[in-house]
Design goal:
Length: 132
């Protein structure tokens, strides 16, 4: 059976096989999640304990941090290491795969930091224009 000669839909996923599209979208959704971005960034300098991660990611709730860490572990981006001590100690660290996201995550955070005033102004103008 011959391959379909028609090109696939245009866009960033067009160079990947169509059957991989759903998984690719899921990965992008996870990697682009705001809490995942901040957790990955917080772990860039090495392992952190849960409480240290909470302090490093302002605004994250305990429930959301736990959920985010679980999802990052599921995807193989973060490792959870439990030490048999009293009291118990648990640390989280990036895997090699997780570390490959650092450049993208850092770039996204830096871009947001660079343009936050401009975007806030745009939002204010847009909201004022649409409120009338």
């Amino acid at each position: 059976m011959e391959a379909d000669p028609r090109p696939g839909p245009p866009g960033p996923c067009s160079r990947w096989p169509a059957e991989k599209g759903e998984v690719i979208r899921q990965i992008v959704e996870r990697a682009g999640d705001k809490w995942a971005v901040f957790v990955i960034s917080a772990l860039q300098d090495g392992p952190l304990r849960y409480t240290d991660l909470q302090h490093a990611v302002p605004g994250v709730s305990q429930r959301m941090l736990t959920h985010t860490l679980r999802q990052l572990r599921r995807d193989g981006l973060v490792i959870r290491t439990s030490y048999p001590e009293v009291p118990p100690r648990v640390e989280y660290t990036l895997t090699g795969l997780g570390a490959t996201l650092l450049d993208a995550v850092t770039s996204l955070i830096d871009w947001a930091g660079t343009h936050h005033d401009e975007i806030a102004d745009n939002r204010s103008r847009f909201d004022a224009a649409t409120a009338t």
